[in-house]
Amino acid sequence: MGRVAVLLCVVALSVSLVPLVAVVTYIVSRGIPALSGGFLVHTPTPPGIPGNGIGNSIVGTLIIVGLAMAMAVPVGLAAALFVVERSGKVSATLRFVADVFTGAPSIAIGVFAYAVFVVAFGYSGLAGSFALAVLMLPIMLRANEEAMFTVPDDLWEAGLALGSPRARVVRSVVLRTALPGIVTGNLLAMARAIGETAPLIFTIFGSQFFVLRPTAPMAAMPLTIFTNATQAYPDAQRTAWGSALVLLVLVVVISVAARAVAAHLNRRTR
Amino acid sequence: MNDLQNFPRHHEDVAATLAARLAEEAHVGAGPATRTAVGEPTVDARPHPRVPALTLDDVGVSFGHHVAVRKTTLALAATRVTALVGPSGCGKTSILRAINRLHDHTGGVVTGSIRLGELDVYGPNTSPELVRSRVGMVFQRPNPFPTMSIFDNVVSGLRFNGVRSKTLLAEAGEAALRQSALWDIVKDRLREPAVRLSGGQQQRLCIARALAVEPEVLLMDEPCSALDPIATGKIEALITELSAHVTVVLVTHNMFQAARVSDETAVFLLGEERVGELVEFGATAEVFSSPRDERTRAYVTGHIG
User: What's the pLDDT score for residue B220?
Assistant: First the structure.
């Protein structure tokens, strides 16, 4: 019995690892040939012209995701604090909405951002940031809430019993104790958003040039992959594979960083 | 030091210990051993006069429809140790948490009046922060802030209340650690995480943390329930020393602990409709040797509760 169960587990594990390993090896093997000759720093060239690059997409992704974090992180923290502090109907509703939005298709969020942002202000990197912020917010809210709930009530009371103002207890005890969880949750939300394509299709339009102004249309890696992969030119397809590899590495780096930061913050406490 | 310092605490026949302590109390307490009604001042074994520091008048605590404790009228004496004893669920912890308005945080409702000197604890213009800075608290389980060093824990109350001066914090931190008999142990490792200390040391750190804000009253909610006998002995010795300057209110399940460290004892029991009530209050020696209430007698001799 025991041996059969172990065998089944091993088989299941292998089956679930196969697609993961296949995707990674395929992207790496197809992506590496594109990485030569300034691929990471150049702007795109027309098909057939050498010296193609995705430098502007990388910069665009960093700016768009950075701004999205700047929008979503404070709101996510404030909303989580509200949910933790008030256990009323509003909190329950907020939590329910967050759950629903976590499962919402990202293309729906893209259309939503188009309707409320692009229609009024036109295509821009900022519109993409807004869409990604909407995508990340529910994930961050739940992650922050989870992290804050694990702070024992003991510590709340210890802080309050010292005569400290409540806001100070929240800041110096609750948020500080929950910090590893909050940082991890927010970075993982970012890793999810950085690869999202659908919210960007409707919002940032894309660009062939280095654009640093977020109110103008911008390029981003997922969109570059999408537009290049759907073209017939081998050059364009190679660009798509190269971008996919860079994006994959970026996501892995962020995920590892999330764990490293959490481990570092935790080590200082025990 | 106090006479309790020499007193055998552990690995002794506890009943014999208790009896010896009671005999000693009776001997030391030279004054007339008058019995008083609940809530009124009681006989005092100490040379200096008994001054009420904290007066509870008809205090009740309820959570939603559940009444935890009611009709508690008590005058707790300054610089004495008052033990609140009684079985689980009889409301002694609820009373303790009413004193520093901790029920504000958990949603309990407090009725009646509590006065801390001239301060009306539940007055309309009284801030809970003010009350809590004058009434410190030590909890059942040691709860140092896990993200902070030993030193940061001790001075956290001062920092949270806006004290920035490094010299002031260093002085207050050292004084509080000396008071809690921890200075010699931790003076070379003040920057280490507090959670590296042993359980008993953590609890003394929590006492130091509470003392650093210089409270008049120290509430202790079964401070030894998570500790081994040796650590318990150290905390008990500390309580006796602290009571020279601070009014100590000690909730304990342990009758012997109450007898060892307290000057006065309040006994809570479950009354009608399973609501906690104060049934007896007086000098510890008398509550234990000649209780006025029949239920108290049954409880302190171990027949109920």
Answer: 96
Residues of B in contact with A87 (CB under 8 A): none
Residue of B76, B50, B27, B64 lying closest to B265 (CA atoms): B76
Mind listing the pLDDT tens digit for each residue in B221-231? 999 998 899 99
pLDDT band at B19 (very low <50, low <70, confident <90, very high): very low
Chain A hits for B64, CB-CB cut-off 8 Å, are: none
Whether A48 has its CB under 8 Å from any CB of chain B: the answer is no
In chain A, the domains with their CATH numbers are 54-267 (1.10.3720.10)
Query: Which residue in B99, B97, B102, B38 sits closest to B72, CA to CA?
Result: B38
Contacts of A164 in chain B (CB under 8 A): 129, 132, 157, 160-161
Contacts of B251 (CB under 8 A, 6+ apart): B83, B84, B85, B92, B93, B96, B219, B220, B221, B222
pLDDT tens by residue, A59-102: 999 999 999 999 999 999 999 999 988 878 888 999 999 998 88
Token pair for residue B106?
């958990």
- Which of A151, A155, A160 should be substituted to probe chain B, the one whose Cβ sees the most B Cβ atoms within 10 Å? A160
Kindly state the percentage of chain B with pLDDT values over 90: 60
Q: Which of A155, A163, A179 sits opposite B143 (nearest CB)?
A: A155
ipTM, 2 dp: 0.81
Model confidence over A91-144: pLDDT tens digits?
Answer: 899 999 999 888 889 999 999 999 999 999 999 999 999 999 999 999 999 999
Q: Provide the 3-class DSSP secondary structure of residue A122.
A: coil
Q: How far apart are CA B244 and CA B169, in angstroms?
A: 24
CA nearest A171 in B: which residue?
A: B160
B-chain residues within 8 Å CB-CB of A155?
143, 145-146
Q: Where are the alpha helices (DSSP H) in B89-137?
A: 92-99, 103-106, 128-134
Contact (CB<8Å) B129/A173:
no
Chain B CB within 8 Å of residue A179 CB = yes
Spatial distance between the Cα atoms of B253 and B224, rounded to a whole number of angstroms:
10
In the prediction, which pLDDT does B199 show? 92
The answer to whether the Cβ–Cβ distance between B133 and A162 falls below 8 Å is yes
Hey, are the CB atoms on B145 and A161 less than 8 Å from each other?
no
Under 8 Å between Cβ of B269 and B277? yes
Looking at residue B41, what is its pLDDT?
Answer: 44
Query: Is CATH 3.40.50.300 what the domain over B7-28+39-275+286-300 is classified as, yes or no?
Result: yes
- What's the predicted TM-score (pTM) here? 0.81
